[in-house]
Every structure is written in C-alpha cells, then in structure tokens.
Amino acid sequence: MTDPTLNAELLKLVRCPVTGTSLSVADQALIKELNQHIELGHVQNRNQQQVSEKVDAGLVNQDRSFLMPIRRGIALLVADQAIPFTT
Question: How crowded is residue 38: how many other Cβ atoms within 10 Å of its Cβ?
Fold first, then answer.
C-alpha cells in the first residue's frame, strides 16, 4: 500500500525511467490483479526477468505501458525493474 503522505509535489518531479513521462499512483485494483499474475509466475520485468516478489503499490507512466514497483515504501525507479503492461 502506498504511503498516504505521498508528496504530490514530489510525484510531479519524478519521471518514468523508460519513457520520460509523468507517473501517477496505480489504483489498488490494478495492484491486486498484478500480484495475482506475479503469484502465477506470469510477470516479467523490462529486463525479461521473472518477477517473483509481489508489489505493495506502484507508479504508472502516462500511457500506462509500464509500472514502477513500490516495495516496502520504496519506489524502484530503475528502467530494468519496470513492469510492462499490455493494457
């Protein structure tokens, strides 16, 4: 779950490390669905490595092509850790 005090001003400053577009907080329905797919072993990151650890939350880029995982309150803003979407 995201920190409820996530600073909106900070969120305006960070960008997707893959596309350079703005990021927004992913809704809980999306996180729940993603975690189900992770549990089934169906998720790979941008580096084509299987994602085995569920995410607590995530930041989605502007065109919803990538999710940047948040685990234990830390956003992983690394291009190789981005989780691609096909939505």
Answer: 18
Q: Give the residue from 40, 6, 45 showing the smallest Cα distance to 26.
A: 6
Apex 19 CA angle, 38 and 47, nearest 5: 40
Neighbours of 6 (CB within 10 A): 14
19 burial class (0-12, 13-18, 19+ CB within 10 angstroms)?
Answer: middle
**40-54 pLDDT tens trace:** 999 999 999 999 999
What is this structure's pTM? 0.87
Residue 44 DSSP label? B
